[in-house]
Design goal:
By secondary structure, chain A is mostly helical. Chain A has one domain (32-250). Helices cover 87% and strands 0% of the residues of chain A. The radius of gyration of chain A is 21 Å and the shape is elongated. The termini of chain A are far apart. Chain B has 8 helices and no strands. Classes of the chains: A mainly alpha (252), B mainly alpha (255).
Chain lengths: 252, 255
C-alpha cells in the first residue's frame, strides 16, 4: 500500500514537473544558445550508437524474412515488408530506445552530478531557474534530435536490409528497389517521425525529472542514470502500443 | 591531424586495456570459485530483480508485434500469417534480444555503478591493500551472475512474449486462434528457444564484462561524475553490442 502511494506521488510529481517544463518553454527567459549546444552534443554522442543499433535490425529482418517469403514464392515482396517495418515501427522505436540509453542517461547523470555538487542550488541562488537553464534545453534537444536521427537510421536500416537480401539472399536488385517504395506512403514517414518526437520528449522530461530528484552521493547519480533508461524504455513501448492501436483504429 | 591521431591512440589504448581486463577476468572466473554469498546475492539481484520489468516489457512487445505486423501484412492481404510472423520474428529474434538489451541495460548499469562507487570511495584499493583479489571477490561473482541469469530471462521472455502475441492476435485483431497456434507449432521448434537462450548466455557475459570494465576503471578523482559516465557507457556499449552480436549469431545459425 505504501509503495502504491509512493508510486502515485512520484507520478503526480512527474506530471507537475512536465507542466513546469511546458510552461517554461512557452515563457521567457529562454536560453537558445544552451539549447543549440545541447543539440550539438546529443547529435555527436548519439549518432554512432543509434546507427549501430538500428542497422542490424534491417539485416535481421531480411535474414529471417527471406526464407518465409520464399515459402510463398514472394521474395520480391520482401522489400515492401522491410520498408514499412523499418520506417514505421523499428527505426522510431529503436532509435528512441538508444537515445534514451545514450542521451537520457547522460542528461540524468549530468543533472544529478550538478545536484550533488550543489551547482543546481547555486544557479537558483543566482536567480537562474534551473528548470529553464538545465532541463528545458535538454528536453527540446531530445525532441528535435530523435526524429533527425530516425531519418538517418531509416536509410541505414534499409541499406543493411538490402545488403542481406540482394547480395547474400539472392533477391533481384531491380525487384527489391521497385517494391521498396511501392508500399511506403507519406503517412508512414510522418507516423515514424511523429512517434520519434513523442518518444524524444518523454526521454528529455524523464531524464530531467530523475536527474533533479538525486539527493546526495555518487551512488544515486548512477541510480538516476539507470532509472531513466529503464523507465523511458517502458514508456516508449507502452506509448508505441497505444499509438499503434489508435492508428489501426483510424485505418492509417 | 594530430588531434585525430591522439583520439585514435586513446581508443587503441582503451581497447588494449579492455582486452587485458577481459582476459584477466575470464582467467579468474574460470580458475577460482566465486564466493558463494556474493554470487547468490548478485544472481538474485540480476535475475529476480529484472523479472517484473521484463514481464511488463515483453507483454507490450508481444502485443506490439501482433498489432504492428497486422498493419504491414494487411497491405498484402496476408494478415492470417501473423502466427508465423510472431513465431519466427518474436521467438527467434525480438524477445531474446529485447530481454538482453533491456535486462542488460539494467544489470550492466547496476554493476558499473556499484563498482565505480566502490572505486571512488577507495573500497577497491582497500581490498588490494588487504591482499584480497578484487577480481575474484567483486568481479567474478558479478560475471557469473549475469552470465547465468540472462539466458533464463531470455527463455522466459520467449514464452511471455508469444503468449502476449497470441492474446493480441486473437482478442484484439479477431484472428482465428487455431490457425495462429498451428502456424506457431509449424514454425517454432524447441531448438529456437534454446538458440535464444544461448544468445543470452553470450550476451550476458559480454554485457557484464563491459559494465565491470567501465565501473572498475573509473578514476577515484572523478567523483560522482565518473559514476554517471561509467554507468552511461556501460548501458550504451552493452546495448549496441547485444544488437550487433545478435545479428552475427543469427547469421551463423539461420543464414
Amino acid at each position: 500500500m505504501k509503495r502504491l502511494i509512493d508510486f502515485l506521488e512520484t507520478l503526480g510529481a512527474l506530471g507537475a514537473f512536465a507542466w513546469q517544463v511546458f510552461w517554461s518553454t512557452l515563457t521567457s527567459p529562454r536560453y537558445f544558445k544552451e539549447t543549440l549546444r545541447m543539440m550539438d552534443v546529443l547529435v555527436r554522442r548519439c549518432i554512432i550508437p543509434v546507427g549501430l543499433a538500428v542497422a542490424p535490425v534491417g539485416a535481421v529482418i531480411s535474414l529471417q524474412g527471406i526464407d518465409v517469403f520464399k515459402l510463398f514464392g514472394a521474395e520480391r515482396m520482401l522489400s515492401s515488408f522491410l520498408g514499412t517495418a523499418i520506417v514505421r515501427e523499428y527505426s522510431p522505436a529503436l532509435a528512441s530506445v538508444m537515445v534514451a540509453a545514450q542521451a537520457g542517461s547522460s542528461i540524468a547523470a549530468r543533472i544529478g552530478t550538478m545536484k550533488v555538487r550543489g551547482q543546481i542550488d547555486a544557479l537558483a541562488v543566482m536567480g537562474v531557474d534551473p528548470v529553464r537553464y538545465v532541463v528545458v534545453p535538454g528536453v527540446i534537444a531530445c525532441l528535435v534530435v530523435t526524429p533527425l536521427l530516425s531519418v538517418i537510421t531509416n536509410f541505414l536500416g534499409i541499406a543493411s536490409g538490402w545488403f542481406f537480401a540482394v547480395p547474400i539472399g539472392g533477391v533481384d536488385h531491380g525487384a527489391f528497389m521497385e517494391h521498396l517504395t511501392a508500399q511506403i506512403t507519406a503517412a508512414d514517414l510522418w507516423v515514424g517521425l511523429g512517434k520519434c518526437a513523442l518518444f524524444g520528449l518523454g526521454v528529455g522530461v524523464i531524464a530531467g525529472f530523475l536527474g533533479l530528484r538525486v539527493k546526495h552521493g555518487a551512488a544515486s547519480v548512477g541510480k538516476a542514470a539507470n532509472d531513466t533508461v529503464v523507465n523511458t524504455i517502458i514508456l516508449i513501448l507502452l506509448t508505441d502500443y497505444v499509438v499503434s492501436m489508435m492508428l489501426l483504429g483510424m485505418g492509417l | 591531424m594530430s588531434k585525430l591521431a591522439a583520439t585514435i591512440d586513446a581508443y587503441w589504448n582503451k581497447g588494449l586495456a579492455f582486452l587485458r581486463f577481459a582476459a584477466h577476468a575470464l582467467r579468474t572466473q574460470l580458475t577460482t570459485l566465486p564466493p558463494r554469498d556474493a554470487f547468490v546475492s548478485q544472481f538474485v539481484d540480476a535475475g529476480w530483480g529484472s523479472l517484473g520489468l521484463l514481464t511488463m516489457l515483453t507483454i507490450f512487445a508481444g502485443l506490439n508485434l501482433s498489432v504492428q505486423s497486422y498493419g504491414s501484412f494487411e497491405r498484402f492481404g496476408g494478415q492470417d500469417l501473423i502466427g508465423m510472423f510472431a513465431g519466427i520474428g518474436g521467438v527467434r529474434e525480438l524477445f531474446p534480444v529485447m530481454a538482453a538489451v533491456v535486462c542488460g541495460a539494467r544489470i550492466g548499469a547496476n554493476l558499473a555503478a556499484s563498482l565505480a562507487n566502490m572505486r571512488i570511495s577507495e573500497q577497491i584499493d582497500a581490498f588490494e591493500v588487504m591482499a584480497v583479489d578484487p577480481m575474484r571477490f567483486l568481479v567474478a561473482p558479478r560475471l557469473w551472475a549475469a552470465t547465468l541469469a540472462l539466458p533464463l530471462l531470455c527463455g522466459y521472455a520467449d514464452f511471455i512474449g508469444l503468449g502476449a502475441s497470441y492474446l493480441g492476435a486473437v482478442y484484439q485483431l479477431d484472428l482465428d486462434p487455431g490457425s495462429f497456434l498451428t502456424q506457431v507449432q509449424d514454425q517454432v521448434r524447441m531448438v529456437d528457444v534454446f538458440a535464444g537462450m544461448f544468445k543470452g548466455l553470450l550476451m550476458g557475459w559480454m554485457v557484464a564484462i563491459i559494465a565491470c570494465f567501465h565501473g572498475y576503471t573509473v578514476k577515484a578523482s572523478d567523483g560522482a561524475e565518473g559514476v554517471g559516465i561509467s554507468t552511461n557507457l556501460a548501458i550504451v556499449h552493452g546495448a549496441v553490442l547485444c544488437i550487433v552480436v545478435n545479428l552475427l549469431l543469427s547469421w551463423v545459425m539461420y543464414g
